[in-house]
Amino acid sequence: MPTPKKKSSPQIKRARKIVSQKPLQKKFSTFSFTITHQESHTQARTGIISTPHGTIHTPAFIPVATQATIKALTPQQLNDIGFDAILCNTYHLYLRPGPDTVYKLGKLQKFMAWHKPVFTDSGGFQVFSLNDGLCQIDDDGVTFTSHIDQSKHRFTPEISMQIQQKLGADLIFAFDQCLDITADYNTTKASLNRTHAWAQRSLSAFNKLNKDQSQALYGIIQGGRFKELREESAKFISQLNFDAIGIGSIFGDPKEESKQLVEHALKFVPKEKTKHLLGIGAVEDLFTYVELGIDTFDCVLPTRLARVGYIFLRPESGGTLQNRYRCRITNATFKQDPSPLDKHCTCYVCKTFTKAYIRHLFKANELLFYTLTTYHNLAFFQRVMQEIRESIEQDSFLPLKKKWIK
Fold first, then answer.
1. Is the pLDDT of residue 2 over 90?
2. Residue 121 annotated in active site
3. Which of 75, 108, 353, 365 has a 20 to 30 A CA-CA distance from 213?
4. CATH class of 31-299
């Protein structure tokens, strides 16, 4: 028996109507994106994102500072590694210390003593990731239960914009509904309609709040594993007056299908807008999506793996696609190993400490272990992105990719 069609809510009907309207003209903004070089053999490009707190050289990996900190590192250490920006989490910072506290203490940069650009996500991914029973979705927004104290809370597109405005990040995201990549067509279509309605409401609320033009807003393309829905979303989001474009619910696996979905969506996105791929950080994925024209990525992968002992390795040091460019320093084989984590790495950790010492820190439950492994892994990712940028500028991206992806 065919499933009866559901009537669209008023919010969704308004959002559908917006695509036929002329985009609002924006006043002068402190945000800009400039493509500095287009690679001659691929869609890869270098660029500069300009914000009130400085510039981001792209393509760039953005470390995730979930609760206004990169776990185990100081802002100075992060700066020493060479990162241009970080991403903080709206959901977690809303629950504690709260957006009012962050606002009163000078917004995120002053609050955490990081004086470079900051992204914040919308909070949607974390809310929709809550276990069954902790999150109830309707066309207006989401009601959820705090994972900290089981208190009840409400997020809508307007509330997400208000929170992110108080947090004060330079680059913020529209509120969207995230789905598992395996969701069926009807579920994905309904979710996409909701995301498009929320995109329009996010943009409307943002324009009212962003009077000083100090923030830039990313619209997010969704559509699950269905090319026609990804295309629909790319066209819809691109016709709204967002500063930049994000692509969501691409989790990197299955690899080829994920690549095809992103590649197809990008056909319908303006080339002049900067594009961010949410939650992607595997080494091979960075090469895949830079080649397609993605400018920035965020992911907890290098820092989360560092805390359980996984160390990233360059190809010259044994890193391969098969071992995911990493080894586990906690293994007994490293107990008396006097070599650095990666003999071809030039970071502070690899120039100073041995595998044996860092393994000892882990076995002794010393907190310094988290600092050293996190520092190395982020230095690894920063160097990869620097080499990618240099290869694009020299029109030699594909030879670099071949060196890494064998």
1. no
2. yes
3. 75
4. alpha beta
